[in-house]
Amino acid sequence: MAAAAAPPPQPAGRSSGRLLELQGVSKTFSNGTVALENLNLRVQRHEFLSLLGPSGCGKSTALRIIAGLGNISGGRLFWPEGGHVGDIGFVFQEPTLMPWATVFDNVHLPLKLQGQGRRQVRDRVEEALAMVGLQDFHAAYPRELSGGMKMRVSIARALVTRPKLLLMDEPFAALDEITRIRLNNDLLQLWESQGWTVIFVTHSVYESVFLSSRIVVMAARPGRIVGEIEIDAPYPRDEAFRMSEPYNAYCRETSATLHRAMGDG
Amino acid sequence: MSTMIEDDRIVGLQDEAIARAAEAAEKRDRVLRWAMPVSLIIAVLAVWEFGVWYHGTPHYILPGPWLVIKTLFTDWHTLYPSLLVTLQITFSALAIAIIGGVGLAVLFTLSKWVELSLFPFAVIAQVTPIIAVAPLILIYVDSTYAALLLCAWIVAFFPILSNTTLGLNSADHNLVNLFQLYGANRWQMLRYLRLPSAMPYFLGGLKIAGGLALIGAIVAEFAAGTAGTGSGLAYRILEASYRLNIPRMFASLILISLSGILIFFAFTLLSHLMLRKWHESALKREN
Ligand SMILES: Nc1ncnc2c1ncn2[C@@H]1O[C@H](COP(=O)(O)OP(=O)(O)OP(=O)(O)O)[C@@H](O)[C@H]1O
Ligand SMILES: [Mg+2]
Fold it and tell me: Based on the structure, what is the number of domains in chain B?
């Protein structure tokens, strides 16, 4: 069992210290489900980390714990550089929009909670909407949008605060292949230019290999880390990378690790 | 090539015919929706009028609907002020019930202890029949008007309280998480999340409370009887019954029913207007 204890070598110029660390974190729900057991995970500043694993292995739970939502049953969550409120953007697995508010107001919400009025930050909200290609829908209500569009609103809402740490829980699972690839590219570009740290939950081996600098593979019952893969390919990554031999090799390796995770899970 | 064009045209014509048929069906539906109940009511009234006429029933036993309507007009100068009194009590009680009910519901969500200690009182007030409590209230409260108000308030209060409490607690847990993540304080959580979530529930409670406030006001007036300030519609009914003025009793009854119906429709409309943008209850299903 390969715990994520060793600090991973980062792609050149990206590594700059720990952002946060999970130390032996366990989570047991009140109904007795052990969602996580002894989870050790270090997240480096500016890395693009993917959590990959079968359904029910505790990926969402881990992400919520990192966001400070819900208490931990054991172990601890450690931020070497302290406080982070307002610095986290979270894209939940479901769109989680307010049905009574327009797209604009939904995206504006995080800023509103920080006391910034509509007029003051109109440009920022519009900019976030443009990033996900929804600039023409700011007056629409969530019920008027497709599933994928709702998800994109949710992504825009996470981006609008310009967070240092972006937590994304299967953000693209509901999207078609083309949109997904486009948003993958956009996300990667933003990540590179903005200096974010991203923790990205996905079911897709291909997506995780394309995006990540590191993939952590989890297994279920109890939720734990069973493997870790460095994707030591340079950024920016583009279509050429998707066609390349190293990409395929990484996909095979990741796939094998995932199969092992599901086999003994 | 030409056959294809022809086919297209035929298909187009068919589509148009189908659309027109659907439109006609919808129109018929709309007309029937009103025509059915209205014609049924007219039929019932006609049978009633005919029965009274046929049997020669004296009007101090059962007046025909025509006489009742005539009475409504001839006695308008006494009935109208009474209607105003009853409506005033109803709406004042409702207003206080809204303020009190929503306020208390908010307090409940802020503190579990307030809820645990106060909710039993609300339940007791709700389950004890108002007709049984009204005489006591009339004894203990000096002003009859205040006593009537209190009675109407007690019955209108509970549905607003319980519905709003349910609504405030029904906020989507993921949204609660989201608000917490972005550092929302209690006030923001309430203002931007819990209150909007509670809105459909509150409006549902309001619809019930509106009718109940009217019933409470009438019941309390009956309990107060002729001893009270004696000017509401219930008082008119009592007074008319002593004088065997049955047509006036019916006329008062009609005014009470109409008020109840209007209150219900007004709140239904309000609810629709408030929710039509987003809530399932006010949306047309479009697939
Ligand atoms: N609120 C809860 N109460 C009880 N058990 C829960 C709760 N939430 C999650 N679980 C359990 O915890 C485990 C992990 O759930 P989690 O949602 O983190 O899985 P996941 O890896 O995100 O799965 P998926 O890929 O399907 O989203 C599951 O076995 C689930 O049954
Ligand atoms: Mg999940």
Answer: 2
Across the interface, do B277 and A141 touch by the CB < 8 Å criterion?
A: yes
The answer as to whether B282 is a domain residue is no
Q: Which ipTM did the prediction report?
A: 0.83
* Helices (runs of H) and strands (runs of E) counted in chain B: 11, 0
Asked if A116 reaches chain B (Cβ–Cβ under 8 Å), the answer is: no
Task: Report how far residue A109's alpha carbon sits from residue A116's, in angstroms, rounded to the nearest whole number.
Answer: 9
Element (H, E) at A89: strand A88-91
- Which ligand is closest in space to the CA of residue A64? 1
Distance from CA of B282 to the nearest CA of A (A): 12
Element at B112 (helix H, strand E): helix B112-127
d(C-alpha B35, C-alpha B43), whole Å: 12
To test the contact with chain A by mutation, choose from B271, B278, B283, B285 the residue with the greatest count of A C-beta atoms within 10 A, namely B278
State the helix-helix crossing angle for B246-275 and B76-110, rounded to 10 degrees. Answer: 40
Atom 25, ligand 1: residue with shortest CA distance: A55
Verify whether ligand 1 is closer than 6 Å to residue A31 (CB atom): yes
Which domains are present in chain A? 18-264 (3.40.50.300)
Encode pLDDT of B224-280 as tens digits.
876 656 688 998 898 888 888 999 999 999 999 999 999 999 999 999 998 888 887
Same domain? For B74 and B130 the reply is yes
Please give the Cα distance from A130 to A133 (Å, whole number). Answer: 5
User: Which of B30, B56, B82 marks a domain boundary?
Assistant: B56
Which ligand lies nearest the alpha carbon of A56? 1
CB atoms within 10 A of CB B42: 11
Whether B222 and B82 map to the same domain: the answer is: yes
Same domain, B243 and B142: yes
Closest CA to A51 of A219, A185, A255, A200: A200
Q: Measured from the CB, is residue A64 less than 6 Å from ligand 1?
A: no
What is the whole-number distance in angstroms between the Cα of residue A93 and the centre of ligand 2?
A: 6
- Does B17 share its domain with B93? no
**Which ligand 1 atom is nearest residue A59's CA?**
21
Do B76 and B127 belong to one domain?
yes
Give tens-digit pLDDT for A184-235.
888 888 888 888 889 999 988 888 999 999 999 998 888 888 889 898 888 8
What pTM was computed for the model?
A: 0.81
In a domain, B206, yes or no: yes
In a domain, B280, yes or no: no
Whether B70 has its CB under 8 Å from any CB of chain A: the answer is no
Pair (B28, B88) in one structural domain: no
Say yes or no: A114 contacts chain B, CB-CB below 8 A: yes
Does residue A110 line the site of ligand 1, with CB under 6 A?
no
Domain that holds residue B38: 1-56
Residue at B281 is within a domain: no
